[in-house]
Amino acid sequence: IADVLEECPAHHRNLPAFYQARRDHFCALMAQTRFRLSPTPGTYFQLADYSAISDSPDLAFARWLTAEHGVAAIPVSVFSRGTDSGRLLRFCFAKDDATLEAAVARLERI
After folding, report:
1. What phi and psi values does residue 80 have, to the nearest 5 degrees?
2. What are the E-state strand segments in 5-110?
3. 48: closest CA among 88, 92, 107?
């Protein structure tokens, strides 16, 4: 980190716009799927409601999504115990465009 800061001292100033562009691109792609997105400012993860797709608990659905479609997501329930977190998953959008586009192409088929 020190080397990056020394070589590019203003690097951190570009990060918000960089990640917002990634998030906006991912959200635009996801508009073609059956997932419903929630606003998620200030994070590298996009919340997605999959209730239009399945009634499965989020952990089971996340495992199925990874095994059957090759797209990993984080079930929201792993962050809380004993509460119903609904049908929500977290997708990381801090990836290059090709990776995001390939993942969403798989999600569109669901």
Report:
1. -150, 150
2. 36-37, 45-49, 74-75, 88-92
3. 88
Which of 23, 54, 48 has the alpha carbon at shortest distance from 36? 48
Taking the C-alpha atoms of residue 7 and residue 75, their distance in angstroms, rounded to an integer, is 38
Sheet holding 36-37, edge to edge: 36-37, 45-49, 88-92, 74-75
pTM of the full predicted structure?
Answer: 0.86
pLDDT tens-digit map of 17-70 = 888 999 999 999 999 999 999 988 888 899 999 999 999 999 999 999 999 999
Instruction: Answer for the pair 70, 99: CB distance below 8 angstroms, yes or no.
Output: no
Find where tokens 């495992």 sit. Answer: 63
State how far the Cα of 86 lies from the Cα of 59, in Å rounded to an integer.
11
Q: How many residues does the chain have?
A: 110
Cα 78–chain centre separation? 15
